[in-house]
Design goal:
485 residues, mainly alpha, Arc Repressor Mutant, subunit A, two-stranded parallel ribbon, 9% strand, binds glutamic acid
């Protein structure tokens, strides 16, 4: 059997991190088994239609490196892969079920259904259609339809049966059929509901494994009933656990908190994000923390996905992203950083060359790209000294600091540029000089660092000096002394 999985999102305009994990697991499973990944757009709910949402979704998948074999924009033997372009297929299948006696027309008005629901609620009964239209003869239905009366088509759920399916993650799941509503399959405007379109397409597209979120478990018995009504073989189901907040509540649906777009905009690297979400609810049982997509494909085992919800721990993501940042080349780092620097209007000074040093300083200190430039702000923006006394180390005095700043200026002036641009070399020089002069380290290094950064906290003075270069360093030390004196 050739494995075929599908990712079947209803595009909403943004991609929920949980949906990205569903897409990823489908991807990992299919690729592990040398199978095919289908992208199918489930957009039959036209009221919720968001223009451009599909294109946007495809772009996000591309950005995080999840490709697909069949779907919109690609050839494939089972297209179109956009459900709103397949209405006729669903209508034919709904009618087929009516002919076979597994579905029926229902003419009940929304008012009647509303009243029925309210009554059932009051009686604390299961909310279910009462099958008023089940007894209508086909002649009567034809006549009413001909007159233009609006009707939906409902699935006739069998009575008094146990509906069972095997789930690769959760084992056997059984539901009594009497608890299941006669699900609407085709709406009165001729559009299918999710249930009909989903099952028909999974069958026609020869999907072998349905991997989706746990929130679809309540729908699956209806799908099982549909497979039976059509006389089709069912795919294998695997329902992956929900994502949770650290306090174990269900992860918010609020876009800003959980959208993949937002994670990317904060500057998490796509490969770090993929690595992180792969391990939400699944664990390759090793101490390794970083996995490439290829390694994940190699190791993925759907039956090892946990049953319980997976906590989305952002601190873990921060840590992992930092590890990824340390692992990328300086060139890659700078390429990722560029749009973030631009959005802050931070431009490298004219003639700046020490990019390797800059990348090293930043990489070690940031967790995600939107923090870039903050640690090395003094490279982009001339510091202002609102409070010059900050230049004085807590165990030192103003007089001493003024003297030392003057000495520092002379010292830096005597060093060749090359020795300043190398922070390790510079550190050696300064430490030696401090010893020769019998200064206290804090007396020298604190005012030097503050003179260069203008800030109470910053990277160390050697790292900063190597970024700024001789001319700027001498200028800032000079300014600091003048301000303090
Ligand atoms: N369109 C459904 C969704 O948005 C798909 C559920 C499924 O995979 O069956 O999640």
């Amino acid at each position: 059997m050739k494995v075929r999985t599908r990712f079947a999102p209803s595009p909403t305009g943004y991609v929920h991190i949980g949906n990205l994990r569903t897409a990823l697991y489908n991807h990992l499973f299919a690729r592990h088994h040398k199978g095919t990944v289908v992208l199918r757009i489930e957009d039959t709910d036209r009221e919720r239609h968001v223009p451009g949402a599909m294109e946007h979704l495809i772009l996000i998948l591309e950005q995080v490196g999840l490709d697909y074999d069949e779907g919109p924009g690609k050839d494939g033997p089972f297209g179109p892969y956009i459900q709103s372009e397949r209405s006729a297929v669903y209508q034919d299948h709904a009618r087929l079920l009516v002919e076979k006696g597994h579905a029926y027309y229902c003419f009940c008005s929304n008012e009647r259904l509303g009243a029925l629901r309210a009554e059932q609620k009051e009686q604390k009964a299961i909310s279910k259609y009462d099958r008023k239209c089940l007894t209508l003869s086909s002649a009567e239905c034809d006549e009413r339809l001909k007159k233009g009366e609006r009707a939906v088509i409902r699935l006739r759920i069998p009575d008094n049966e146990v509906i069972t399916f095997e789930d690769s993650i959760r084992g056997t799941i059984s539901v009594h059929s009497n608890e299941i509503d006669d699900q609407v399959l085709l709406k009165s405007d001729g559009m299918p509901t999710y249930h009909l379109a989903n099952v028909v397409d999974d069958h026609l597209m020869e999907i072998t494994h349905v991997i989706r979120g746990e929130d679809w478990i309540p729908s699956t018995p209806k799908h099982v009933a549909l497979y039976r009504a059509f006389g089709w073989v069912m795919p294998v189901f695997a329902h992956v656990p929900l994502l949770l907040n650290p306090d174990k509540t269900k992860l918010s649906k609020r876009q800003g908190d959980v959208s993949v777009e937002d994670f990317l905009a904060q500057g998490y690297l796509p490969q770090a994000l993929i690595n992180f979400i792969a391990l939400l609810g699944w664990n390759p049982r090793s101490d390794q923390e970083r996995y490439t997509l290829e390694e994940l494909i190699e190791l993925f085992d759907i039956s090892k996905v946990n049953k319980s919800g997976a906590v989305l721990n952002k601190e873990k993501l921060d840590w992992l992203n930092h590890e990824y940042l340390l692992g990328i080349t300086d060139k890659e780092f700078i390429a990722h950083a560029e749009p973030f620097l631009k959005s802050k209007a931070y431009a490298f000074p004219a003639g700046f060359k020490n990019f390797a040093q800059w990348a090293r300083v930043e990489k070690q200190r940031i967790k995600k790209m939107n923090e870039v430039g903050e640690e090395t702000r003094c490279l982009f923006i001339e510091p202002t000294f609102e409070n010059p006394s900050l230049l004085v180390w807590k165990k030192s005095t103003q007089e001493k600091t003024v003297v030392i700043l003057a000495e520092l200026e002379v010292f830096f002036d005597s060093l060749p540029e090359h020795d300043i641009l190398d922070d390790k070399l510079l550190e050696e020089h300064i430490k030696q000089w401090i010893e020769e002069k019998h200064f206290e380290r804090g007396d020298v290094l604190w005012p030097l660092r503050v003179a260069l950064s203008g800030a109470e906290r910053s990277p160390g003075p050697f790292e900063l000096a190597a970024l700024l270069g001789k001319k700027v360093v001498c200028g800032r030390i000079h300014n600091a002394r003048v301000l303090l004196a």
